[in-house]
Amino acid sequence: MAVAGARIPLFISVAAPRNGKGNGRSVKIPKTRVCNRLPNSRASVSEKISQSEAGAKVVKEIPGSYGPPLLGVIRDRQDFFNGREEFFKSRMEKYQSTVYRVNMPPGGPFFPDPRVIMLLDAKSFPVLFDTSKVEKRDLFTGTYMPSPDYTGGYRTLSYLDPSEENHGKLKSFCFEVLMMNRERWIPEFQRAAQELWDVLEKELASHGRAGFNDASEHMTFNFLCRSVMDRDPAAPGPASLGGDGPSLIKKWIFFQLAPINTIGLPRGVEELTIHTLPLPFSLVKKDYQKLHGFFSTYATRALDAAHKFGLTRDEASHNLLFNICFNTWGGMLILFPSILRLLGRAGAQLHKDLADEVRAAVRAERGGLSMRALESMPLLKSTVYEVMRLEPPVPFQYGRAKQDLVLESHEGFYKVNKGELLGGYQPFATRDPKVFESPEDFLPRRFMGEQGHKLLRYVLWSNGPETESPSLNNKQCAGKDFVVMIARLLVADLFLHYDSFDMEISAGALGSAVSFTSLKKPISF
Ligand code: HEM
């Protein structure tokens, strides 16, 4: 969902003592204070995750430093934008720890406190999902929150902690919209996908290459609007968006996420512009009003349900817009190219195996790409999970300690004070070598079979284990099952149409851009 620089980074802000310097000092605490151990059942899944020794735990100081005021923030910010994997890796090596203190962008002087305790392994990361231990209020975009002006003056669901009354109301509304359209998702997706393949084939025929990203952004928006609003975004009408929907959304998201993204301008220019001050909503006010006009005019079916949950139509409309445009469309903006890129790199044998599996399952369902057919495609399911493990579209999660607690990583136990901010860079948790064999490799069959299924609890893209479900009491993505279904549909539909494909990858403004250089049609199916 990141509009620039790749994915949607989500960070947090801290209220920790400024001199939080690791000095290797250890203190003993009684066994009962060890409140963040992974349950034994989880630890036993991977033989590589060692069991904690019984008895008193040695609790270490968290290593790392926030550095001198302001200078430390600027130093960490510059390092981060020079390459975030290297940013985290170099500090892991320096501190010999997957848990350490560091400033996360944007940070001062004009953004809130950036001090974070980063969690970079599969064992410590899940504390971020435990809402009895961490509060998730206003942490969706990280250590700062865009002005609520960007969302109609409301704090939308993604920014609410489950302890807030509106969280339950808005999440129920979100579930309701997903449910009320359940019969539409598959046919509308296939209809929009057919249009996408047609566009790409035409472009290939005339130019020898066809860009996937732009075309799929329109396809996704058409699919979502037709399903939820029974209407094409470009259909004539008083609140029509014409063909501008995707560009309006991108601009609106970009302005909210600019402080934590990079857009390829010279570092110094970005440092002085988008990374120093929040961008004012006034610059996108007209664009947002246009989008909101479309939603409030045409999303009648969904908005009619708002009162059932004690929501006003106005609050529901801004939340619906956020769910569809930011959460869903923004997520797919990242996810779809990831899927295509990893599939493309994997090559023709995987394409053939997927095409065989998809076509056999569809044949068994008498030609229909139904939920049942999708469920009977083990290779396809595993492939999609592997993409989401390797490249979780939303890589950062945050939570503020509700109480003093003790964290456990592979290396030991760490004390966290109430109010301190915990942050996780998810790709390091889902590429943890203590859990996954060859963690950096794309292994499409990784999640097949009994052993493979057991690993699903370490797939965390939805802000929770893949084996768990979103609820009113947690912050797991409300669209978890929907996203998995749509990702499977994209791959299944691709291989219903084509035997294989070739592509080129280039660096685009929004991460990598995928272009097809061939789409190979089956002789017969
Ligand atoms: C590729 C697509 C998507 C990805 C990668 C994604 C990822 C996430 C993540 C990581 C979070 C947790 C953020 C945090 O609090 O730290 C989240 C929350 C949320 N997502 Fe998704 N999401 C996607 C699509 C969707 C869809 C389709 C919907 C609904 C229609 C949705 C609705 C939500 C909502 C409402 C929340 C907040 C949940 C709560 O407050 O309890 N997302 N999503």
TrEMBL record:
<protein>
    <submittedName>
        <fullName>CYP74A73</fullName>
    </submittedName>
</protein>
<keyword id="KW-0456">Lyase</keyword>
<dbReference type="InterPro" id="IPR036396">
    <property type="entry name" value="Cyt_P450_sf"/>
</dbReference>
<dbReference type="InterPro" id="IPR002403">
    <property type="entry name" value="Cyt_P450_E_grp-IV"/>
</dbReference>
<keyword id="KW-0443">Lipid metabolism</keyword>
<feature type="binding site" description="axial binding residue">
    <location>
        <position position="477"/>
    </location>
    <ligand>
        <name>heme</name>
    </ligand>
</feature>
<keyword id="KW-0479">Metal-binding</keyword>
<dbReference type="GO" id="GO:0006633">
    <property type="term" value="P:fatty acid biosynthetic process"/>
</dbReference>
<keyword id="KW-0275">Fatty acid biosynthesis</keyword>
<dbReference type="GO" id="GO:0016125">
    <property type="term" value="P:sterol metabolic process"/>
</dbReference>
<keyword id="KW-0349">Heme</keyword>
<comment type="similarity">
    <text>Belongs to the cytochrome P450 family.</text>
</comment>
<keyword id="KW-0276">Fatty acid metabolism</keyword>
<keyword id="KW-0444">Lipid biosynthesis</keyword>
<dbReference type="GO" id="GO:0016705">
    <property type="term" value="F:oxidoreductase activity, acting on paired donors, with incorporation or reduction of molecular oxygen"/>
</dbReference>
<dbReference type="GO" id="GO:0005506">
    <property type="term" value="F:iron ion binding"/>
</dbReference>
<keyword id="KW-0925">Oxylipin biosynthesis</keyword>
<dbReference type="Pfam" id="PF00067">
    <property type="entry name" value="p450"/>
</dbReference>
<dbReference type="GO" id="GO:0020037">
    <property type="term" value="F:heme binding"/>
</dbReference>
<dbReference type="GO" id="GO:0016829">
    <property type="term" value="F:lyase activity"/>
</dbReference>
<dbReference type="GO" id="GO:0031408">
    <property type="term" value="P:oxylipin biosynthetic process"/>
</dbReference>
<dbReference type="InterPro" id="IPR001128">
    <property type="entry name" value="Cyt_P450"/>
</dbReference>
<keyword id="KW-0408">Iron</keyword>
<dbReference type="GO" id="GO:0004497">
    <property type="term" value="F:monooxygenase activity"/>
</dbReference>
